[in-house]
Structures are given as structure tokens and as C-alpha cells.
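Hey, can you fold this one?
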Amino acid sequence: MFRSKMLAAAIVSLGLLSGLRAETKPEETNNNPPVVVKTETKPLAPGVVDNAKLKEMLETLGYDVRESKSGSTTYYWIQKSADGLDFSLAFSLGGTQEKIFTHVTLANFTDKQLAKSDRMVKLLNLNDMIGPCYFLINPKTKQLYLTRVCENRGMTPRILKDHIGSIVDRAAETKEHWMASKW
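Sure. Predicted structure:
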């Protein structure tokens, strides 16, 4: 029994070292060791980041990164200041990992504020001017976000830094329109 466990561990180790991912599936028979199935793992294309690399890039840029999960999505939170305002930014990868989503939490609205259609129309009109950023309201939490999506290819710390700077600059430039205290 000990020998078969050692053999299974050696096979898993060799599979991992050779660039293959080993998955174990328990057999349905009595106390047999797990079956090791080798499947090829596609390496990430150059400049495509996974969750670990995204977090590493944010840390390399000097941010204190806080991690949270919602379902199967991992979010990496940082703080950034611009124009006297402090912003919380959340980064996540889309389900296919082809896109990097950045959300800046801007404001919490009351039902009364959400009913002001002239303000909402202004935010929609601003979307055209501030693209590729856009305003988004979560109907459950009544929170307003500024969101920007970028392709997850050719990503470098420099491009990520420019992406962060762009979304924070758009948030600061439009503050007169989204600050709930001004409604």
C-alpha cells in the first residue's frame, strides 16, 4: 500500500515537472489508489496574465493588494488617489481570462437619488466621452462604479499602470457628475 502511494506521488511529480497537469479521480473500487490522468495544460501566451500574475504586477507597481472572492471570481483591490480623492479599485479576470475588468467604486445612492433621471442621463452621456471607461450601477447595492475593460494580451506592468492611471483620471474628471453629495 505504501509503495503504491509513493508510485502515485512520483507520477504526479513527474507530470507536474514535465509541464503536464495531473488530475486525480478516485476509483469506485475499494481502497485503490487514485487514478492519475495526465492532461496537457496550455501555457499562457506571452503577455496574458492569470490571477497570480495580475496580483504580482499590482504588487510590483507598489500597491498593497487585498484579495477577495465572490463565487468563482477573484478580485484584487488597491487604493489610488487623484485630484484629492481616494479611490478603491477592484481588478478581476473574465471567465475566459481574455479580459481584465477594473471597477472603481464611486458612490452609494439612495432610491431618491436614483430616481433623478436627469442625473442618470448625464452619466449615460458621459459614457460616450470617457470611453473606454463607462459608468455602471449595481441595482442590488445601489453602488455606482466606473468600469474599464482591457484585453488580457500583451499585458506588462507599464500597460497596467497606464490602465490604472486612465480610469482614475476619468473618475476624478467626472466627480461633479457622480458625487452623491452633489445630487
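The chain has two domains: 2-40, 51-182. Let me know if you want another pass with a different chain boundary.
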